[in-house]
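Morning!

This is the sequence you dropped in the shared folder:
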Amino acid sequence: MVNSQMICITGVPGTGKSTIRNMLTDDGLQCISLDQLARSSGCVDQDNVDIDCLARKIGVGYRCVESHYSHLLECQFVIIMTTREDQLVSRLSGRGYGMEKIDENIGAQRADIIYYEALERLPASRIIKVANDDGTLPSAYRTVKNLIQGKF
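The structure's back. Tokens below.
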């Protein structure tokens, strides 16, 4: 079953997806981590997520989902989190990422890969980029929250 009302929060690692999801949850809005759902639902094989399996498990039960691959599901809106490259380097190196993996993620953000993948599924009017740079987290959060609450 397809959930056409689902808001999908995505972006390369280090852009603030999980932080925004946690803030939404703290505010009483249900938003789940697809990584956690994929693992608990048996949709992961050797660190590879089976998107078709995950789509079947989701059904219509979720209004908001978050992961770097959520835009590959059937979404009403896709919110792409972005951040400055220097912040990506800082955040990802702080997580123990090597420079090769950091460069790969910077390249993906530069090339707008997630946007173009989302554009294959949705019109551009339903894909929204939200910057999460130093000092902009409250603004980014308000934008995402308003969209989820239908105030966008």
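Headline: The chain has one domain: 7-148.

More detail when I'm at my desk.
O.
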